[in-house]
TrEMBL record:
It comes from the Bacteria. Keywords: DNA-binding, Transcription, Transcription regulation. This is DeoR/GlpR family DNA-binding transcription regulator. The keyword Transcription applies.
Amino acid sequence: MLAERRHQLILRALRSGGPAAVTDLSEQLGVSPATVRRDLLKLEEEGLLTRVHGGAVADEGDQPFAEVAEVRVPEKDAIAAKAASMIQDGQSVLLDIGTTAYRLARQLHGRRITVITSNLVVYEELVDDEDIELVLLGGMVRREYRSLVGFLTEDNLRQLHADWLFLGTSGIRPGGQVMDTTVVEVPVKRAMIKAGERVVLLADRAKFPGTGMAKVCGPEELDVVVTNAPVDAATRSSLEEAGVQVVVA
């Protein structure tokens, strides 16, 4: 069995059944405990689970796209509508992975703009819209999360510049740091920030403080935060001190 397939099955088992022991996972997958331990170490490095004594537990902050897409949809749509109103015809827009970026893509139909993305769901949403110039970044496919990652994605971004970047996040710390649960996505997000003229963070109320073990950027690299709820005093202070505009949808 390929490692990628084992990783998918391990995460599925942990999400459906809760914490699991190495011995149980070994029996389910038909591989040695040593192989399972190596898989758990790799998945922990990617921020997908937390190893505990004798086994592991899934990180609920990094659920597959299909699961997250059904959560807080009206809130995400309000944020998306506010973000879409910032874009002018003729501009270029870089859309990050994630479900809020997808909801934003749904607001862009019929606009004469250029959309650049590593988000496969955004691509599928806009591919038939002839008014939009659509650029799909290259890279390795993360099937469950509907995204493209890796050095090819990062190299593509180094050759591009966009008027706007709309960035997703797993969590925002009180100091204004933008966090992510998945280590493999972080280099792509950082490359997107360098490619964007103005960086807009899309964050619903669950992202304060949210989750995430890997730092994407500090508040000084953001221009705007669009959210659907009042931001706590400490986080708002950190953002405003860095010159970030907080917009409540």
